[in-house]
Specification:
Alpha-Beta Plaits; globular; eight-stranded antiparallel barrel; 29% helix; two-stranded antiparallel ribbon; 265 residues
Length: 265
């Protein structure tokens, strides 16, 4: 894996339901005030809400660091802030007050919140999805609110990580993403919840998701026509299935909608 590739962390966010917190209250706070909580330099964070799948109506905090080095500068191997991170927050008292307000609604992206972090094994560089934040408010317009699909994978018996990763990196050019979608393969590196691999699908909008898959594992004629036009990608998927589970049912997965995110750092 390339140490200059992005690192992602996922923190499970739970609401203080016993205190009467509702999803509407939490999301309003996150959009109207929480977006002023800064990300570390070069990082982004996104609050995600499950649309469908395993964690429907549940929340995740997705953080993206530009590299393994950038991640390690601010988060130690146990998932705690480094000295540099503590200095970052000490210099921003208004942000720490916003985090304190956030914690009245639910958990934040810090221990003991359950989390995992991942290195990127490969990405589809031929994707038509432009680089940019998953959530972005736009005055006078609807916000940018991308969908993020997270699909857990597991290796078949006898298949080593090296074998699977070698296959993915050698064949990533055969991946065919729908227009406005982007494929990433991630490998869990640590955290309080350890997974093997995760497929991350970044999708430009809910409309784009529904244009191809309006329900769990339901394909529209548009999706079927795309598959028919990209037969080598389908052959690659069949080869993949010989090594590991594939994204989608019956594996665990959730499609999330972005409901808030950091401003540009």
């Amino acid at each position: 894996m390339n140490t200059s590739s992005p690192v992602y962390s996922l923190h499970y966010v739970g609401l203080n339901l016993k205190k009467g917190v509702t999803a509407e209250h939490f999301e309003a706070f996150a959009r109207e005030q929480g977006t002023a909580i800064p990300a570390y330099p070069g990082w982004r964070w996104t609050l995600l809400k499950g649309l469908r799948g395993e964690r429907q109506n549940q929340y995740l905090m997705l953080q993206q660091a530009p590299s393994a080095q950038a991640y390690a500068q601010y988060i130690d191997p146990q998932g705690d802030p480094t000295l540099l991170a503590r200095q970052f927050w000490q210099a921003r008292p208004q942000a720490t007050e916003l985090i304190a307000q956030w914690k009245r609604f639910g958990t934040f992206a810090e221990r003991p919140t359950i989390f995992s972090y991942y290195a990127q094994v490969a990405e589809n560089t031929a994707s038509t999805l432009a680089d940019g934040p998953n959530y972005q408010a736009r005055p006078g317009q609807a916000p940018v609110a991308r969908v993020v699909g997270l699909h857990n994978l597991a290796l078949r018996p006898g298949v080593t990580p090296d074998t699977f990763e070698h296959f993915i990196t050698r064949n990533i050019h055969r991946i065919a993403d729908y227009p406005g979608w982007k494929f990433r393969m991630l490998k869990c590196q640590g955290g309080s919840r350890m997974d093997q691999y995760l497929v991350m699908l970044e999708i430009e909008s809910l409309d784009s998701l529904n244009a191809f898959h309006p329900e769990l594992d339901v394909s529209t004629p548009k999706a079927l026509a795309f598959v028919e036009a990209h037969q080598d990608a389908e052959r690659m998927n069949d080869e993949w299935r010989e090594l590991a589970s594939f994204s989608g049912a019956p594996q665990l997965y959730t499609d999330y909608i972005s409901v808030a995110g950091s401003a540009a750092s």
